[in-house]
Each structure stands twice: as structure tokens, then as C-alpha cells.
Amino acid sequence: MLRFLTAGESHGPALTAIIEGLPAGMPLDVAQVNGELARRQRGYGRGGRMQIERDQVEILSGVRFGVTIGSPVTLVIRNRDWENWRQRMDPVAGSDTQPVTAARPGHADLPGTIKYAREDIRDILERASARETAARVAVGAVAKQLLRAVGITVISHVTNIGGIWAAADEIRTGDVAAWASRLQSSALNCLDADAEERMKEAIERAGQEGDTLGGIFEIIAFGVFPGLGSHVHWDRRLDARLAGALMSIPAIKGVEVGAGFAYAALPGSQAHDEIFYEAERGYYRRSNNAGGMEGGISNGENIIIRAVMKPIPTLMRPLASVDIRTKQAAAAARERSDVCAVPAAAVVGEAVVAWVLAEALLEKFGGDAWGDLQAAIDYYRRRIR
């Protein structure tokens, strides 16, 4: 019922996203979308590209007077750097006297050129670039507005950069607005100020050495009610869909839900979340090792999911590689890049999690008209008490 496509290259004219299936009558605030795009561009350790771009979204269809009208919504983000690349990236005319032929280890460069039979790696790296995630952040910002209107908030925070761990337990409970406000003032989207300073020092050292750093971020969805997703088929399980969405982000190499790999050390008596009931509250748990999902279905607790981002594969001190034309040894190509983009990846993670939750919401309740969706959710909330 709800789907999207993105198009565009890193140094092409623009990134485009088309969203289909939004309910008609839903208010859509462009300023909030632009705010999410700005968050993606921030973060200690970002590279020169972020100094060029000032991502802003244009809405070309599907919205009238700030409200969706039921038709596909087209979002466009112009690439300001396009003017510097027009000759080398023009869709019709132009030429490139600097083809990329030395593949970067850890990037799509080599497998992409083999798969698509290209002789210039730029044909692959332009789309494989994490620049594409700007379009997904815009799409996710729209999904976030839908979710917030029914009481669901999605936020992220960084728990590890370069092996430096931050305290993380407190954010999983308490005042969502307070946590979000604190994170806004953090250069690394991290709640632990002491750990953040040590992370910054590690990023500085890596940059000076021509190296890069990865890390871990956590996504928490507050206010998710039980019943999203399903146990009946593998591809309808909410946890599987969320994990797949996070793994689709460039450089993400692992995902865990709730206690995740810590389950391996726990007996069943300590692993599972006991169930309680109160008339005003309904069913609830006093722990949340399951990360808000059981049997592929949301259980009413906060959804907690983490992802690990590998270090960025573009190094200023390149690794060994091979020239795809000559087959001779070569130093890997260098593209303008970040030292660390874990905070930006966390914002992208929020976007894809929000999108999957919005999908599951509309699958369960329908979504042709905004008022009908809200009425269906209101009835459901009364019923499950």
C-alpha cells in the first residue's frame, strides 16, 4: 500500500523520490523534512561535500496547500555540486577525461563494474554513494510526520565510535522530548558527554592518519502499539523488515534487536519479558529484552534496534587494489569523503525504521483518507484494552 523509489547520482543534477500510498488529507510540513535533511548533514568528522550542499526538498506533486491529495508525492533535492560536475556527469552530452579504474576495497566499485560490465567505476560509485540516503531521509521525514500524528516517535543515538562506548540505558525510558532535545546539541548524536569527547579525539587522530572510523547507533521507536507486522509469513515479520531496511543503508554490516547477541549468555528465565496487565495500561512488560517485538509482531513496548556501520572505504591513505583496465596493482581511488559518518547513518536509520513502521501501520489500518486512518486506530486502541 505504501511504497517509494529513489533516483539520482551523487554528482548528478538532483536526487528524486516518489512516494505512493500516503493517505489523502495528511498535513505535510516541508520545514520538518528540511530539518531532517540538515540533521543528516551534521556531525563531527564529516567531509567537504557537506560544506557545499545545503539540502532542501522541493515537492513537485501529490501535495496541495500543505496537505496530501492521494496521488504520488514527488520530492526533489537539488545537488549544488552538480555545476562542478556538469561536463563529467551530463546525462546527454559531455566527456570524462578522468575515469576511475582503481576499485576501493569495501565499496561497490569492483562487484558493480563486474555485474554491469562497466569500464569506468564512476558509473557504479555515483549511485552506490551514500549521497542517495538524502532522498531516503526525506522519505523517512514524511513517514515520521504520519507516525507522530498517531503518537509514535522515532529517535536515534550513537553508542560507539571506534570502539569507544557511550552509556545508553537511560534513553530507553523516560521523557522522549527531553532526550531528543539533548541529542540536538550533540555533535555526534551521543548522550554521554565524556564518551563523546573521547570519540572526537579518536576521529581527529584517524583523520590525521588518513584513516576512517565506524561505530554503532541505536534506534528507538516510542509509542508503538501492539499488532504491527505478522507471524504468518517470513516477509511480513516486522523485525525482519526493520533489519532488512537498516542493512540496506550503505556501510551497515550488522543489526540486532533488543538484547540481540546478549541472549547467547542468558538462560530463558532471564531472557524473556514477563507479561503484566493493568486496566488503565493494558498489557505491559517490566523489561524489554525482546526489543518491542515477539513473533514478528510489535508487542506494545518500545522498539529497540541497533546497527553497526563499518569504517568508510574511501581512505586518504589508499589500500592496495587492482586497475580494472590494466589488471595491474594500483592504489585504490580516492573520492572526497568523511572520516566518520556514524551520526549521519543514525539519522538515515531513523528514516528507514520510520518508513517500515508507516508501511506496517497502513497495512493494518488502511489509508486512503487521513480521517479514516485515525478513526481505525482510535477504535483499535480501545479494543485492545
From TrEMBL:
Organism encoding this protein: Thermosinus carboxydivorans Nor1
GO cellular component: cytosol
UniProt GO MF annotations: chorismate synthase activity; FMN binding
Pathway note: Metabolic intermediate biosynthesis; chorismate biosynthesis; chorismate from D-erythrose 4-phosphate and phosphoenolpyruvate: step 7/7
Keyword flag Amino-acid biosynthesis: yes
InterPro entries membership: Chorismate_synth, Chorismate_synth_AroC_sf, Chorismate_synthase_CS
Catalytic activity line of the entry: 5-O-(1-carboxyvinyl)-3-phosphoshikimate = chorismate + phosphate
UniProt lineage: Bacteria, Bacillati, Bacillota, Negativicutes, Selenomonadales
Enzyme Commission identifier(s): 4.2.3.5
Keyword Nuclease attributed: no
EC main group: lyase
Protein name per its UniProtKB record: Chorismate synthase
Matches recorded under CDD domains: Chorismate_synthase (cd07304)
Function: This reaction introduces a second double bond into the aromatic ring system.
Cofactor note: Reduced FMN (FMNH(2)).
SUPFAM superfamilies to which the protein is assigned, alphabetical: Chorismate synthase, AroC
